[in-house]
Amino acid sequence: DTGVSQDPRHKITKRGQNVTFRCDPISEHNRLYWYRQTLGQGPEFLTYFQNEAQLEKSRLLSDRFSAERPKGSFSTLEIQRTEQGDSAMYLCASSLGGLGEKLFFGSGTQLSVL
Amino acid sequence: RKEVEQDPGPFNVPEGATVAFNCTYSNSASQSFFWYRQDCRKEPKLLMSVYSSGNEDGRFTAQLNRASQYISLLIRDSKLSDSATYLCVVLVLNAGNNRKLIWGLGTSLAVNP
């Protein structure tokens, strides 16, 4: 399968714990995005990378959230000291960039904070 | 006013009906436009890009009206499998020449037998 893959598919954690998610984009794609989505809402932008550079980070993102893409390939999203409001689907997408900017999404990681 | 607005629906239509969704955007610097489809508890998938001249893909037709700042999606002869949420996405040029994708909240479609 050469699509975008995310791991884990589901994560249940207790409030206050740290969690880390991984995303492997389509190999030739240089752009990688993280989104968060709750039921009935559209995807909410978190951050994106051009190769290994983090070019933009949403102002909605608290300093408990950090993302990395160390070698311009896979990316990790870490949430520290999780809160119940962090419960959501975390979606990763990749693209070739350019004006076309067609995103290909992974299946997401469903986070439940108890 | 939201940057990208869609009627959330739900639109309930019988099989075989024609249904149309509109999406309005506020940023005149918007450069590219897309429709994505999202099934319940699944990831969004690109349905089609929207070009100024309008484009068609089988039963789906997308159009762009830059003067009025809206895009539309028309589905003809709707099938049960078309039931999903349709998300409008707009690519804008930020200050600093950064591109940013703005997502609508989606329009829910239910096609009934």
SSE layout:
The complex is a heterodimer of chains A (114) and B (113).
Chain A: E1 5-7, E2 10-13, E3 19-24, E4 31-37, E5 44-50, E6 53-57, E7 65-68, E8 75-79, E9 88-95, E10 104-105, E11 109-113
Parallel strand pairs in A: 2-11
Antiparallel strand pairs in A: 1-3, 3-8, 4-5, 4-9, 5-6, 7-8, 9-10, 9-11
Chain B: E1 4-6, E2 11-14, E3 19-25, E4 30-38, E5 45-50, E6 55-57, E7 60-65, E8 70-75, E9 84-93, E10 99-103, E11 107-112
Parallel strand pairs in B: 2-11
Antiparallel strand pairs in B: 1-3, 3-8, 4-5, 4-9, 6-7, 7-8, 9-10, 9-11
Keywords:
heterodimer; A: 114 residues; mainly beta; seven-stranded mixed beta sheet; four-stranded antiparallel beta sheet; 11 strands; B: 113 residues; six-stranded mixed beta sheet
What is shown here, in short?
Chain A is 0% helix and 49% strand. Chain A has 114 residues and is an all-beta fold.
Helix content of chain A: under 10%
Query: What's the helix count of chain A?
Result: 0
Q: Give the uncertain stretches of chain B in residue-range form.
A: none
Counting H and I runs of at least 4 residues, what is the number of helices of chain B?
0
Distance N to C terminus of chain B: 37 Å
The secondary-structure class of chain A comes to: mainly beta
Radius of gyration of chain B equals 14 Å
General description of the model:
The complex is a heterodimer of chains A (114) and B (113). Chain A is mostly beta strands and 114 residues long. Chain A has strands at 5-7, 10-13, 19-24, 31-37, 44-50, 53-57, 65-68, 75-79, 88-95, 104-105, 109-113. In chain A, strand 4 (31-37) and strand 5 (44-50) form a beta hairpin. The N and C termini of chain A lie far apart (33 Å). By secondary structure, chain B is mostly beta strands. Chain B is 0% helix and 58% strand. Chain B contains no helices and eleven strands. Chain B has strands at residues 4-6, 11-14, 19-25, 30-38, 45-50, 55-57, 60-65, 70-75, 84-93, 99-103, 107-112. In chain B, the strands form two sheets. In chain B, strands 2, 4, 5, 9, 10 and 11 form a six-stranded mixed beta sheet that branches. Chain B has a five-stranded antiparallel beta sheet with strand order 1-3-8-7-6, with no helix packed on it. In chain B, strand 9 and strand 10 form a beta hairpin. Chain B is globular. The model of chain B has no long low-confidence stretch (mean pLDDT 92). The A-B interface holds A 33, 40-45, 55-56, 89, 91, 99-108 and B 31-32, 34, 36, 41-46, 49, 87, 91, 98-101, 103-106.
